[in-house]
C-alpha cells in the first residue's frame, strides 16, 4: 500500500476543526501495527521519539487536540437539543464565571435575542441557578460595565412598529454629545446606558441614522473605548454583520481555542431563526466573497461539518 | 387573602352583560345594579362579561361605564373592571405623566406584584401605549430617582425561598455601611435592593436589625422627613418585606386627607381586593383601632362608598 498517502490522509483527518471519522476508520482502523509505528515516527507534532527507550511517546498535545476536536460535534449536539432558554442561560453563566474577557457573550445574548427569548433565558436562569440573571451579574461585575450589562439583560423591549422619530433624533444628539465630551467614559454615562438598555431596536435604528447625519461619522465605527459598548451597538443595530464577523474570526486559521468555539455557538443559537440566518449568510458572502457553506466545506471535517451544514441548510 | 365576595351561583356572563346594559339604559344610571354585579365578580369573570358585552352590544363595557359614571365612583369602577395587568399598566402610565406624577405607584407595582405578573403588566403596557414601561420610566425620571426606579421596574426577581445566610450577613453589612455614610443612592445599596429575591432580602434585613439594633427603615428616617427620595426608599423596603403595612399607610393618609396621594384609597382597594385585602384590613384595624370599612364610610359617601365597601367584602354577594 502507498504509505505516504495514508499518512497524509490520516494526518489530514485529525488536523483542523472536527475530525474525519470515516477516514479514521478506513485508515487508522484498518492499519497494521507497523504502519502505526511508522505514522508515529513521522508525526513529529503528535509524537516524540524516545530514542533511549525505543518508542514513540504521545505529546500531551495529541491527546488534548483529539479530545477537543472530537468534542465539537458532541457539544453542538448537546447545545442543539437543549431548549434555547437553557442554552442562553448557561452561556451567560459561563461567561460570568470566566470573567471580563468573556463578557462579550453576555452582550451578544442580551442584544441579539428577541424580548421573549431574553425573558425566557432569565426564567431558565431562575430554574437552573436559583437566582436571577441580573442579581448574579450585578454582584459579580464591578466597574464601569456593571450598569450596562445589568441594564442590557434586564431589558424587555417594545417590539412593535411605532416609533417617535423626533425622540430618536434628540437622543441621537445626546449620544453625539456624550461621545464628543471628555471626562467620564461613554459607557459610564447614565443617558447612554438609559438609551441603549431601554429603547426599542426600531427606535435605535432611527437614532443611528440621525447620529450619523449629525456627527458625520458612523456610530458603529468604534465610538467608545469600551469594546463591550461598541459590541452592544453592533449587536443591536446590525446583528447579521456582528455574527458574520465573529464567524469569520472563528474560522480563521490563527483563531485561538476560545474563538474557535464561537462557530458552534453562532450556528446552534441562530439556526432556528431562518430570516436571521439568511441575513447572516448574505452578509458573510458580501464581506468575504465566499458562502458560509463553502467555507465550512473547506475548513471543517467529519460529523461536525455535516451537522453544521445541516443546520445551515435549514434556512434554505 | 382576598376580600372579594362572589356569589356561589354566578350568573352567566350573558345575563350579567344584559343587566349592566339595562343599568345604563333610560334616564340616569342604576349604580346599585352596577355595583351588585361588578363588585362581586373576579378578574376572569369580569373579563368574560366584557367580551360578551362587546360582542352583544358592539361597545366596550369600559366606554359605556365612562359615559355613564363620573368622579371617584367612575374611577373606582373603571379601575376595578380592568384586568389586573391592564389596570397596573394604566396606573403606571398615569404615574409617569406630569400632572399625575406619583412614584409610589411605580414602587407598588414593581415591588408587590409577583415577577410573572409584572411581566404581564409590561406586556399590557406595550400593547396599549406602544412603548415599554422601562423606557417611559427611564425617560421621565432622572438622578437618584431613576437610579432607583429603573432597575426596580426592570428586574425579574427570583421567587424561590432559598436563602444564603452568609450572603445575608455580608450584604447587611454593606447596607449598614452605606446607611452610616448616608450614601443612600450608592450603586451597591441599590443593587441589593433591586436585584435580590424577596426571601434573600428578608433575611438580609432581619440580619441588619439583629446585628445593628435598628430596622433599616428606622435608620433611613433620621434625615428630615422632607426628602422624597428617602421616603420612596423606605416605601420600597416596606413593599418588598411587609406590603400590608405600606398599603395601610397609603389608605390612612388618603382617608385622613394627608399627603398628596388623593387617589390612594381607590387604588389600594381596587388593586388589593383580589390579593391581600383581608390582611390589609387587619393591619388597618391594628394600627387605627377602627375597622377599615368604617373609616371609609366616615370619609366617603354615596355610590363611591358603596363600591369600596362592597369590594372590601361587606354587603351581600
From TrEMBL, chain A:
<keyword id="KW-0111">Calcium/phospholipid-binding</keyword>
<keyword id="KW-0677">Repeat</keyword>
<dbReference type="GO" id="GO:0005737">
    <property type="term" value="C:cytoplasm"/>
</dbReference>
<dbReference type="InterPro" id="IPR018502">
    <property type="entry name" value="Annexin_repeat"/>
</dbReference>
<dbReference type="GO" id="GO:0009409">
    <property type="term" value="P:response to cold"/>
</dbReference>
<keyword id="KW-0041">Annexin</keyword>
<protein>
    <submittedName>
        <fullName>Annexin repeat</fullName>
    </submittedName>
</protein>
<dbReference type="GO" id="GO:0005544">
    <property type="term" value="F:calcium-dependent phospholipid binding"/>
</dbReference>
<keyword id="KW-0106">Calcium</keyword>
<dbReference type="GO" id="GO:0009651">
    <property type="term" value="P:response to salt stress"/>
</dbReference>
<comment type="similarity">
    <text>Belongs to the annexin (TC 1.A.31.1) family.</text>
</comment>
<dbReference type="GO" id="GO:0005886">
    <property type="term" value="C:plasma membrane"/>
</dbReference>
<dbReference type="GO" id="GO:0001786">
    <property type="term" value="F:phosphatidylserine binding"/>
</dbReference>
<dbReference type="GO" id="GO:0005509">
    <property type="term" value="F:calcium ion binding"/>
</dbReference>
<keyword id="KW-0479">Metal-binding</keyword>
<dbReference type="GO" id="GO:0009408">
    <property type="term" value="P:response to heat"/>
</dbReference>
<dbReference type="GO" id="GO:0009414">
    <property type="term" value="P:response to water deprivation"/>
</dbReference>
<dbReference type="Pfam" id="PF00191">
    <property type="entry name" value="Annexin"/>
</dbReference>
Automatic annotation (TrEMBL), chain B:
<dbReference type="InterPro" id="IPR018252">
    <property type="entry name" value="Annexin_repeat_CS"/>
</dbReference>
<keyword id="KW-0106">Calcium</keyword>
<protein>
    <submittedName>
        <fullName>Annexin repeat</fullName>
    </submittedName>
</protein>
<dbReference type="GO" id="GO:0005544">
    <property type="term" value="F:calcium-dependent phospholipid binding"/>
</dbReference>
<keyword id="KW-0041">Annexin</keyword>
<dbReference type="GO" id="GO:0009651">
    <property type="term" value="P:response to salt stress"/>
</dbReference>
<dbReference type="GO" id="GO:0009408">
    <property type="term" value="P:response to heat"/>
</dbReference>
<dbReference type="GO" id="GO:0005509">
    <property type="term" value="F:calcium ion binding"/>
</dbReference>
<keyword id="KW-0677">Repeat</keyword>
<dbReference type="InterPro" id="IPR018502">
    <property type="entry name" value="Annexin_repeat"/>
</dbReference>
<dbReference type="Pfam" id="PF00191">
    <property type="entry name" value="Annexin"/>
</dbReference>
<dbReference type="GO" id="GO:0009409">
    <property type="term" value="P:response to cold"/>
</dbReference>
<keyword id="KW-0111">Calcium/phospholipid-binding</keyword>
<dbReference type="GO" id="GO:0001786">
    <property type="term" value="F:phosphatidylserine binding"/>
</dbReference>
<keyword id="KW-0479">Metal-binding</keyword>
<keyword id="KW-0007">Acetylation</keyword>
<dbReference type="GO" id="GO:0005737">
    <property type="term" value="C:cytoplasm"/>
</dbReference>
<dbReference type="GO" id="GO:0009414">
    <property type="term" value="P:response to water deprivation"/>
</dbReference>
<comment type="similarity">
    <text>Belongs to the annexin (TC 1.A.31.1) family.</text>
</comment>
<dbReference type="GO" id="GO:0005886">
    <property type="term" value="C:plasma membrane"/>
</dbReference>
Amino acid at each position: 500500500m502507498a504509505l505516504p498517502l495514508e499518512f497524509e490522509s490520516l494526518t489530514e483527518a485529525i488536523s483542523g476543526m472536527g475530525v474525519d471519522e470515516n477516514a479514521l476508520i478506513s485508515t487508522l482502523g484498518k492499519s497494521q501495527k507497523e504502519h502505526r509505528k511508522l505514522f508515529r515516527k513521522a508525526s513529529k507534532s503528535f509524537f516524540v521519539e524516545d530514542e533511549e527507550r525505543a518508542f514513540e511517546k504521545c505529546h500531551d498535545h495529541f491527546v488534548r487536540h483529539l479530545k477537543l476536536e472530537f468534542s465539537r460535534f458532541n457539544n453542538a449536539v448537546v447545545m442543539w437539543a437543549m431548549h434555547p432558554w437553557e442554552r442562553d442561560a448557561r452561556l451567560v453563566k459561563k461567561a460570568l464565571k470566566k470573567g471580563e474577557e468573556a463578557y462579550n457573550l453576555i452582550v451578544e445574548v442580551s442584544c441579539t435575542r428577541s424580548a421573549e427569548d431574553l425573558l425566557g433565558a432569565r426564567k431558565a436562569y431562575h430554574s437552573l441557578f436559583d437566582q436571577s440573571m441580573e442579581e448574579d451579574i450585578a454582584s459579580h461585575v464591578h466597574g464601569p460595565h456593571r450598569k450596562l450589562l445589568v441594564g442590557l439583560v434586564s431589558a424587555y423591549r417594545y417590539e412593535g412598529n411605532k416609533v417617535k422619530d423626533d425622540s430618536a433624533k434628540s437622543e441621537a444628539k445626546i449620544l453625539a454629545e456624550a461621545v464628543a465630551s471628555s471626562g467620564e467614559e461613554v459607557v459610564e454615562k447614565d443617558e447612554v446606558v438609559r438609551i441603549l438598555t431601554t429603547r426599542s431596536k426600531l427606535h435605535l435604528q432611527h437614532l443611528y441614522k440621525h447620529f450619523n447625519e449629525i456627527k458625520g461619522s458612523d456610530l458603529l465605527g468604534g465610538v467608545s473605548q469600551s469594546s463591550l459598548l461598541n459590541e452592544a451597538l453592533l449587536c443591536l443595530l446590525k446583528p447579521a454583520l456582528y455574527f458574520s464577523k465573529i464567524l469569520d474570526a472563528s474560522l480563521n486559521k490563527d483563531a485561538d481555542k476560545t474563538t474557535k468555539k464561537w462557530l458552534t455557538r453562532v450556528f446552534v443559537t441562530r439556526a432556528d431563526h431562518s430570516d436571521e440566518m439568511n441575513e447572516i449568510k448574505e452578509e458573510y458572502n458580501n464581506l468575504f466573497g465566499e458562502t458560509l457553506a463553502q467555507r465550512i466545506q473547506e475548513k471543517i471535517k467529519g460529523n461536525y461539518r455535516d451537522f453544521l451544514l445541516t443546520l445551515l441548510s435549514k434556512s434554505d | 387573602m382576598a376580600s372579594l365576595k362572589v356569589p356561589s351561583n354566578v350568573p352567566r356572563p350573558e345575563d350579567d352583560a344584559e343587566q349592566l346594559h339595562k343599568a345604563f339604559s333610560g334616564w340616569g344610571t342604576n349604580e346599585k345594579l352596577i355595583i351588585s354585579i361588578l363588585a362581586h365578580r373576579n378578574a376572569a369573570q369580569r373579563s368574560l362579561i366584557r367580551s360578551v358585552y362587546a360582542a352583544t352590544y358592539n361597545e366596550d363595557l369600559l366606554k359605556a361605564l365612562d359615559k355613564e359614571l363620573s368622579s371617584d365612583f367612575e374611577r373606582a369602577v373603571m379601575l376595578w373592571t380592568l384586568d389586573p395587568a391592564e389596570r397596573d399598566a394604566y396606573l403606571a402610565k398615569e404615574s409617569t405623566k406630569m400632572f399625575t406624577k406619583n412614584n409610589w405607584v411605580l414602587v407598588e407595582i414593581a415591588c408587590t406584584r409577583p415577577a410573572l405578573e409584572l411581566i404581564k403588566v409590561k406586556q399590557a403596557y406595550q400593547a396599549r401605549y406602544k412603548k415599554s414601561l422601562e423606557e417611559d420610566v427611564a425617560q421621565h425620571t432622572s438622578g437618584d430617582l431613576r437610579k432607583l426606579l429603573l432597575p426596580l421596574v426592570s428586574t425579574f426577581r427570583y421567587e424561590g425561598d432559598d436563602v444564603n445566610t452568609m450572603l445575608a450577613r455580608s450584604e447587611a453589612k454593606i447596607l449598614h455601611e452605606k446607611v452610616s455614610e448616608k450614601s443612600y443612592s450608592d450603586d451597591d445599596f441599590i443593587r441589593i435592593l433591586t436585584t435580590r429575591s424577596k426571601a434573600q432580602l428578608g433575611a438580609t434585613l432581619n440580619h441588619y436589625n439583629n446585628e445593628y439594633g435598628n430596622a433599616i427603615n428606622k435608620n433611613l428616617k433620621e434625615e428630615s422627613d422632607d426628602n422624597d427620595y428617602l421616603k420612596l426608599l423606605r416605601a420600597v423596603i416596606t413593599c418588598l418585606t411587609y406590603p400590608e403595612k405600606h398599603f395601610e399607610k397609603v389608605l390612612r393618609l388618603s382617608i385622613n386627607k394627608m399627603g398628596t396621594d388623593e387617589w390612594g384609597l381607590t387604588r389600594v382597594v381596587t388593586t388589593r381586593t383580589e390579593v391581600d385585602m383581608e390582611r390589609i384590613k387587619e393591619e388597618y384595624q391594628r394600627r387605627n383601632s377602627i375597622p377599615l370599612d368604617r373609616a371609609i364610610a366616615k370619609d366617603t359617601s354615596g355610590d363611591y362608598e358603596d363600591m369600596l365597601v362592597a369590594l372590601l367584602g361587606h354587603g351581600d354577594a
